[in-house]
Write a structure and sequence with these properties.
about 240 residues, mainly beta, eight-stranded antiparallel beta sheet, seven-stranded antiparallel beta sheet, disordered N terminus, binds calcium ion
């Protein structure tokens, strides 16, 4: 049985209405993998450190912490140590995903940070790397230290195409950031808070199809103070 969510991926991404159809979408999440798609979903009702490769920098005072925090719908709270550029990055063990220009793929995450400006953030599917902010291969959202602007990065072998400033984050305010590959075009589409999708043309040289890659996210301090990242959910699916 095909996954209806994906068959209507583009339609859904442009759906701003609080419609019955949109409200019905989560019913498809418990059934992500069949012969058509495989995927990973975590609503963070629970947290298991062992499934992640965690790269932590704790040069400043204190230690990074990662734990479920109370909140309806499940939330993972990540808090760094207090040094500038202290960081906590998570990459799902095993590189279980691979992109192809001829296959649909989808990633979405809902998250917030305590400091929309003095942080670096990354969310997406990347090669396993101890420095995910500068990963060589992947499709991911990144927010740079010193501004509150979210960027979309599509990158192969360090050759990146970026859509910069696609959204502005605010302190302690959740944002839903989604991208998907439409194999019927040469574009990767993104949408913010389930708004209208916007396509970004990606030349073959920047399309990361030569690596097995994995779900990846994290936060780095942009100033010498402990910054926090709260993740509501992450979902990623790729056509088999
Ligand atoms: Ca959640
Ligand atoms: Ca590569
Ligand atoms: Ca800074
Ligand atoms: Ca910095």
């Amino acid at each position: 049985m095909a996954n209806t969510h994906f068959q209507n991926m583009i339609f859904w991404a442009g759906n701003n209405a609080t419609s019955k159809a949109k409200k019905s979408l989560p019913m498809f999440q418990p059934y992500p993998s069949d012969q058509t798609f495989y995927g990973y979903f975590n609503d963070f009702l629970e947290y298991h450190a062992g499934i992640w490769t965690i790269t932590t920098t704790e040069a400043g005072t204190g230690s990074a912490t990662e734990a479920i925090t109370s909140g309806a719908g499940g939330q993972l709270l990540v808090t760094n140590a207090a040094g500038d550029n202290d960081a906590d990055f998570f990459q799902l063990k095993g590189e279980s995903f691979k992109f192809s220009r001829s296959k649909k793929a989808y990633f979405s995450a809902r998250f917030k940070t305590s400091d929309a400006t003095q942080t670096d953030l990354v969310f997406g599917i990347q090669i396993t790397d101890t420095t995910p902010l500068t990963a060589t291969d992947g499709i991911f959202f990144r927010k740079d230290d010193g501004n509150a602007l979210l960027d979309l990065v599509v990158e192969k072998n360090n050759q990146a195409i970026e859509a910069s400033g696609i959204a502005t984050l605010a302190n302690d305010t959740f944002i839903t950031a989604t991208w998907y590959i439409d194999p019927d075009s040469s574009k990767v589409f993104y949408c913010i808070n389930n708004g209208d999708p916007i396509g970004v043309a990606i030349p073959d040289a920047s399309f990361p199809d030569d690596e097995e890659i994995t779900v990846s996210f994290g936060i780095q301090n942009g100033a010498a103070a402990a910054k926090a990242l709260t993740v509501d959910y992450i979902t990623a699916m790729i056509e088999r």
